[in-house]
Design brief:
The chain is an alpha+beta fold. The protein has a single domain (19-173), classed as Protein Transport Mog1p, Chain A. It is 24% helix and 45% strand. It has helices spanning 2-17, 87-105, 162-169; strands at 22-25, 31-35, 40-48, 51-61, 71-78, 107-117, 120-129, 134-143, 146-155, 172-173. The longest helix has 19 residues, at 87-105.
């Protein structure tokens, strides 16, 4: 009997301390991704060679120091319709995006791996802030005519925590 009570008590405590992650769907209904809590949404003007594009962003920043990651972010921006659509040109576009992210974060690139996601081109990266305190894991994708970036900021002491994998792995396409 004591064993059953202990198991039930453990289950109740786990449910009390485990947050339900929130599913975010982008405005164009291209994808969903899960955040630890309701994300803040914004639209940001991004200057490009083709002119200003509107990037839809959703982000969640840690509410306390006890959370394993400092910030989660997803961003989607349309690509110019006249862009070259070869695999080589598309990976070059993704690579320039990664280079820009490294530069904007004032970070050092640790790894960059070309990959695919459900048949779409992607690059998975890891960066480290120059002071060594934060690891940035990201996935940058080209989905149809959209550039999508997922980013997680993790204190080095929490490197490899399961919430990074949970966030990046929760990304699901709604349209092919």
């Amino acid at each position: 009997m004591k064993k059953v009570v202990l198991i039930l008590l453990t289950a109740v405590l786990l449910m009390a301390f485990t947050k339900d992650w929130q599913t975010y769907t982008d405005p164009k209904k291209v994808f969903t991704v899960q955040f630890p809590d309701v994300p803040k949404t914004t639209v940001q003007d991004i200057p490009t060679k083709a002119g200003i594009v509107k990037a839809h962003q959703a982000s969640y920043s840690a509410a306390s120091e006890t959370e394993s990651n400092k910030k989660y972010l997803v961003s989607m921006a349309p690509l110019p319709p006249e862009r070259v659509r070869t695999t080589e040109a598309s990976y070059a576009l993704l690579s320039r995006s990664v280079e820009g992210s490294v530069r904007n974060h004032k970070a050092m690139l640790v790894s960059s791996v070309k990959t695919t996601f459900k048949g779409h081109l992607a690059i998975d990266t890891e960066m480290t802030m120059k002071d060594g305190s934060i690891i940035i894991k990201s996935r940058t994708l080209l989905i149809n005519d959209n550039h999508i970036g997922l980013i997680v900021y993790t204190p080095v002491i929490n490197k490899g925590n399961s919430d990074v994998t949970r966030f990046l792995g929760s990304f699901k396409l709604l349209k092919k």
